[in-house]
């Protein structure tokens, strides 16, 4: 079964302190849905090199055992509550993608 991934890129974060409130709710919701954070840069000291239209802002990659698990975690009550805490001043490009078997 192909894995599922959440891919989030944050082109603009106007209030990093408020983003922390989202993180505190989103982390447990992701874990409860079976998600594993593979990368969260640059906030964890990871390195990034941007090419073409790429940006060096925050990038988050989370792996799930399946695409269906990734979708279910996003639709969960716990994650929907986390989304309500996401500040208005955060621009985010979020996708759920299916991996290759």
From TrEMBL:
Pfam families listed in its UniProt record: DUF1330
Residues annotated as domain DUF1330: 3-100
Signal peptide range in chain numbering: none
Protein name: DUF1330 domain-containing protein
